[in-house]
């Protein structure tokens, strides 16, 4: 059974959407096995998004991620990585399919409400970035 890493981003937490977003995951067969609310430090946000550090939007992305608290989660289920990406919808909400989290809730490509790992290697890496093994309660 597969595990993936998810962030409910500041724009969504600020608008009190934690429950509605977790409901989408649960309705689609993903089970939260670890979750916590944190206020990311600049160092954490820069480290987490290090792959994007040469991109023009990096500074804005980091500022948005540290502006207010987030919820970090590990989701477990059959094909969890791909399933989570489907539930999230396209990065830019203008391109997101009906019923997806980003179509329903995202404000813009930057404030797009959720993050989800894109592959098994990044999922493992991102889970380790925020959780220790004893926090994963399957
Ligand atoms: P994540 O699940 O967040 O990784 O989204 P993604 O894989 O769909 O997108 P990608 O990894 O390409 O980009 C990471 C994040 O950077 C996105 O979720 C956006 O919030 C942000 N981002 C991407 N492109 C832009 C952009 O053109 N402008 C701004 N402001 N942010 C962007
Ligand atoms: Mg990505």
Briefly, what is this?
The chain has 138 residues and is of the alpha+beta class. It contains 7 helices and 4 strands; from the N terminus they run βααβααβααβα.
Task: Describe the structure in your own words.
This is Nucleoside diphosphate kinase. Pfam families: NDK. Belongs to the NDK family. It catalyses: a 2'-deoxyribonucleoside 5'-diphosphate + ATP = a 2'-deoxyribonucleoside 5'-triphosphate + ADP; a ribonucleoside 5'-diphosphate + ATP = a ribonucleoside 5'-triphosphate + ADP. The longest helix has 11 residues, at about 120-130. The model has no long low-confidence stretch (mean pLDDT about 95). This protein is α+β, with helices and mostly antiparallel strands and about 140 residues long. The protein has helices at about 10-15, 20-25, 40-50, 60-65, 80-90, 100-105, 120-130; strands at about 1-10, 30-40, 70-75, 115. The structure holds guanosine-5'-triphosphate (GTP) and magnesium ion. The site of guanosine-5'-triphosphate has 11 residues, from helix 4 and strand 4. Guanosine-5'-triphosphate binds near residues 60, 91, 110 and 112.
Parts with pLDDT < 50 across at least 5 consecutive residues: none
> What best-fitting shape do the alpha-carbon axes yield?
globular
How do the strands line up in the largest sheet? Answer: 2-3-1-4
Please identify the structural class as seen in this structure: alpha+beta
Helix fraction? 40-55%
By DSSP (H or I, 4+ residues per run), the number of helices equals 7
The tally of beta strands, per DSSP, is: 4
Distance between the termini: 10 Å
Beta content comes to 15-25%
- Overall mean pLDDT: 97
Major sheet description:
4 strands, antiparallel
* Topology pattern, helix = H, strand = E: EHHEHHEHHEH
* Bound compounds: guanosine-5'-triphosphate, magnesium ion
Radius of gyration: 14 Å
GO molecular function, one term: metal ion binding
EC number: 2.7.4.6
Cofactor: Mg(2+)
GO biological process, one term: CTP biosynthetic process
């Amino acid at each position: 059974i597969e595990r993936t890493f998810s962030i409910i981003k500041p724009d969504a937490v600020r608008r009190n959407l934690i429950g509605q977003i977790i409901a989408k995951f649960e309705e689609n067969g993903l089970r939260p096995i670890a979750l916590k609310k944190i206020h990311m430090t600049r160092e954490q946000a820069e480290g987490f998004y290090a792959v994007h550090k040469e991109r023009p939007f990096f500074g804005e992305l980091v500022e948005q991620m540290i502006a207010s608290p987030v919820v970090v989660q590990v989701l477990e289920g059959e094909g969890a990585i791909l399933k989570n990406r489907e539930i999230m919808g396209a990065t830019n909400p203008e391109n997101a399919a009906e019923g997806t989290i980003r179509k329903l809730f995202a404000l813009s490509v930057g404030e797009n409400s959720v993050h989800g790992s894109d592959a098994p290697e990044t999922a493992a890496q991102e889970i380790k970035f925020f959780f220790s093994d004893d926090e994963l309660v399957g």
